[in-house]
């Protein structure tokens, strides 16, 4: 599986909200679909991003590394999009 921007958003939203119950509706998904998507993302990366503690989703070391990088990618992408939109106006 090739990771896409939407996969970064899924992981970041889950990490930020801390539970599947909160993240799923924020992403417009069922909890079952979100859990399956996270499983596929973790398989693509080769390790667990989250530890499931009761209902909470706690980031693993790998998860913290991924989230840090994903935030950077999204920030840079948003800056690129803004520069391109500004250039298109001129």
Automatic annotation (TrEMBL):
Keyword Transcription: yes
Pfam families: HTH_1
Keywords recorded for this protein, A-Z: DNA-binding, Transcription, Transcription regulation
InterPro entries named in the record: LysR_HTH_N, WH-like_DNA-bd_sf, WH_DNA-bd_sf
SUPFAM superfamilies linked: Winged helix' DNA-binding domain
Positions of the HTH lysR-type domain: 3-60
Record carries keyword Transferase: no
PROSITE patterns (alphabetical): HTH_LYSR
Recorded family membership: Belongs to the LysR transcriptional regulatory family.
Full protein name: LysR family transcriptional regulator
Naturally occurring in which organism (per UniProt): Actinokineospora xionganensis
């Amino acid at each position: 599986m090739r990771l896409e921007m939407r996969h970064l958003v899924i992981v970041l939203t889950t990490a930020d909200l801390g539970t599947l119950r909160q993240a799923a509706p924020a992403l417009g998904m069922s909890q079952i679909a979100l859990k399956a998507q996270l499983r596929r993302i973790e398989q693509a990366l080769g390790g667990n991003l989250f530890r499931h503690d009761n209902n909470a989703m706690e980031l693993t070391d790998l998860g913290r590394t991924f989230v840090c990088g994903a935030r950077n990618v999204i920030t840079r992408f948003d800056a690129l999009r803004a520069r391109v939109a500004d250039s298109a106006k001129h």
